[in-house]
Design goal:
This protein has 2 domains: 166 residues, 3-Layer(aba) Sandwich (Rossmann fold), CATH 3.40.50.1000; 77 residues, DNA polymerase, domain 1. 42% of the residues lie in helices and 12% in strands. The chain starts with a strand and ends with a helix. Bound molecules: xylulose-1,5-bisphosphate and magnesium ion.
Length: 253
């Protein structure tokens, strides 16, 4: 029986990467006097590495091999990342980044239907709290029975660890849940944990390989702005994701 919905955050609940995380990284680089600048296409490449600290290390290795690394490079990365989190959460508090279409509607409906809600993300816990508070509801954090985020597991997506951690906390089996993801790394993580997954693509991820997803959609859709289904299983279908539709997909209808 379907008991819980587990949500990725970045790219799934909101389009946070291009206009949230990316400028926050750049603001941190400027603050530290670094001439690193992540433009939109470069950031798309860097997203292959999940986790902000891991992404910065990867950038230096791949794109700035001649940059003289200080002896305390790991400390610098940690400091940069703290600054980036500060910039990012301030951006959310100041104007917010809106939730994607259908997200708030589905969360409200799922709660009312008695489904358990959870978060499984590689991003920093403070970022999740800020997004839920400023873009969902003042008490948005309380809507979720578990918030699995950041460094609580050492191996980030596509490793299944963050999902396995959330399942253990909830005391649920993978086949009692559905996951929501926007990226191939996210889908692989959920699949490796044995959780069937609905994918909503965005500009950075629409060319990813989503083989094995339960459904691949433009977004969750609203009655006045329906999604288009992109996977071969239901290509061209339009609609909006509600609990009834999720239960049908879950049951294999
Ligand atoms: C999200 C990420 C994160 C964010 C930045 O991936 O990869 O690294 O880009 O967050 P997913 P931090 O949506 O698959 O969870 O800087 O806090 O790591
Ligand atoms: Mg994501």
């Amino acid at each position: 029986m379907l008991k819980a919905l587990l949500f990725d955050v970045d790219g799934t609940l909101a389009d946070t990467e291009r206009d949230g995380h990316r400028p926050a990284f750049n603001a941190a680089f400027r603050e530290f006097g670094l001439d690193w600048e992540w433009d939109v296409p470069l950031y798309g490449e860097l997203l292959a590495v999940t986790g902000g600290k891991e992404r910065m290390r990867h950038y230096v290795e791949r794109h700035r091999p001649d940059w003289p690394r200080p002896a305390d490079f790991d400390d610098l990365v940690a400091e940069l990342h703290r600054a980036k989190t500060r910039h990012y959460t301030r951006m959310l508090a100041e104007g917010g980044i809106p939730l994607r279409p259908g997200v708030k509607r589905l969360l409200e409906e799922a709660r009312a239907a008695g489904l358990i809600l959870g978060v499984a993300t590689t991003t920093t816990p403070d970022n999740v709290t800020a997004l839920l508070r400023h873009s969902l509801a003042e008490d948005g954090e309380q809507w979720f029975a578990v918030i699995a985020a950041g460094d609580i597991v050492p191996a980030k997506k596509p490793a299944p660890d963050i999902y396995l951690w959330a399942l253990e906390r909830l005391g649920l089996a993978p086949d009692e849940c559905l996951a929501f993801e926007d990226s191939e790394n996210g889908l692989r993580a959920a699949q490796a944990a044995g959780i069937r997954t609905v994918v909503t693509v965005n500009d950075y991820t629409r060319t990813h390989d989503f083989t094995g997803a339960l459904a691949v959609l433009t977004d969750l859709g609203e009655p006045h702005a329906p999604y288009t289904r992109l996977d071969a299983g239901g290509s061209g279908e339009t609609g909006w994701v509600d609990v009834k539709r999720l239960r049908a997909w879950y049951a294999g209808a």
